[in-house]
Write a structure and sequence with these properties.
By secondary structure, the chain is an alpha/beta fold. It contains six helices and 13 strands. Helix 4 (158-166) runs parallel beside helix 5 (183-197). The longest helix has 15 residues, at 13-27. The termini are far apart.
Length: 264
């Protein structure tokens, strides 16, 4: 299947969107992965939560989610700020989540996971901005494809990658927003998650700046043995590869995935 990874600057969405539309029209991917909460500038760079900023970001994401059909992909995965429960205008009594979605050309938006593991330090004050969700890492089937989602920081909790592998996930998807100086570390994490799960591991990332912080770009695709197959860059912000999903199916029975880790 053809899969596309991306990086782009949320401060220049119209021009970035036009470039992505052209790429998707040429490549016609069956799956396209977008960065974490990519339809607004990275507001979690500020430690001070603003209800107005949150609501504006949620509104902007709703607008851009309505334009996903323009990309012409069969499936699109990303995340968005989302209010659940509560009353308008400021979600009083409700929860705020960073929620992953799967959009399909025949079914529209399906919300599939809320982010569980939230950082709270310089540039990533996420626990200040929204709620931590209960642990819930369920594989998702879309046609013949089996997906697992780990949003940004969740990648480092490898027990979930292991469990996704046990449950025959073929693609492990990691939408993220991470800074430039950590690019090598994140690629190492993606390679390890691919090996642990026996799945292709795909990541897409913000580019540009959030305040004084430079965001890293550098989306990647790793094969089930952790070999990097492609990375995005400023020169090539969108990359599409044809992935042999049978490699992921076969990897489940090879080292180290077959090793029994159940208690005696």
């Amino acid at each position: 299947m053809k899969a596309t990874i991306t990086q782009f600057d949320a401060r220049a969405l119209e021009s970035e969107w036009t470039r992505l539309r052209r790429h998707a029209a040429a490549e016609q991917p069956e799956l396209l992965l977008l960065p974490e909460m990519c339809f607004s500038p990275w507001f979690c760079a500020s430690p001070r939560r603003s209800d107005l900023t949150w609501e504006r970001a949620a509104h902007d994401h709703a607008y851009w989610l309505g334009r996903l059909p323009e990309l012409g992909a069969r499936r699109i995965v990303g995340t968005a700020p989302r209010n659940i429960g509560g009353t308008a205008p400021r979600n009083i009594g409700g929860k705020r989540f960073n929620s992953a979605y799967l959009w399909t050309d025949d079914g529209g938006i399906r919300w599939i996971h809320h982010k569980t593991y939230l950082p709270n330090d310089d540039g990533y004050w996420e626990a200040n901005w929204y709620d931590r969700a209960p642990i819930d890492f369920e594989p998702l089937c879309s046609g013949d494809l089996s997906l697992g989602i780990m949003i940004c920081t969740e990648l480092w909790f490898m027990q979930h990658a292991r469990e996704y592998g046990r449950r025959a996930v073929q693609l492990l998807l990691n939408p993220r927003s991470t800074p430039l100086h950590t690019n090598d570390k994140w690629l190492a994490g993606g390679r390890a998650a691919a090996v642990v799960s026996g799945a292709f591991c795909l990541s897409s990332n913000h580019a540009g700046h959030a305040g004084r912080m430079e965001l890293g770009g550098a989306g990647w695709i790793c094969d089930p043995d952790g070999v990097p197959l492609a990375t995005t860059s400023a020169e090539e912000p969108f990359v599409t590869l044809n992935l042999d999903l049978e490699m992921a199916n076969e990897a489940k029975s090879t080292y180290p995935r077959y090793v029994d880790d159940c208690e005696f």
